[in-house]
Amino acid sequence: MELPRLVILISGSGSNLQAILDAIEDGTITAVPSLVVSNRQKAYGLVRAEQAGVPTAYFPFKPYRDAGKAREQYDADLAELIRPYRPDLIILAGWMHILSAAFLKHFPNKVINLHPALPGQFAGTHAIQRAYEAYQRGEIDHTGCMVHLTIPEVDAGPVIAQAEVPILPEDSLADLEARMHQTEHGLLVTAVRRVLAEH
User: pTM to 2 decimals?
Assistant: First the structure.
């Protein structure tokens, strides 16, 4: 039986990518990492992918922006780049670019996103910092992270898995970020397993 194919999109250090690669290596996730795409050339996640023998692609948005092309054109071209890899699941693991319907329509119900906030809280960028500031103001006593199905509306798709992350009185923002990332790694592996089990 052919193993499910994963395409993973990253923009940074790739620690969540590493969690997936490690889980594949130890048999926790039964799948093949077919491609890792980064929209940032210096993303360390590309190095992680290369070290694991996974094909990589660098696909920046800047040339599109500089040429005055729409985000939808970038998204459509990104879909064309990924399509030959016939992904069963596309994982947005720290991917810092909002994907429009121009991309998502090509992979219905196959794109999942990891977001460092609980459903309905802190959609969009700087979610950990915004949660930390809300805690300082006494508005929340914990935060969390979720993996959800990606839809055009930002961070609003159906939730696949979620986990609470405590905020402690003595926490610095860096402390909270470290605890969040630790939780994210386990949650992402859980969510990927859950989605693949349903395929």
Answer: 0.95
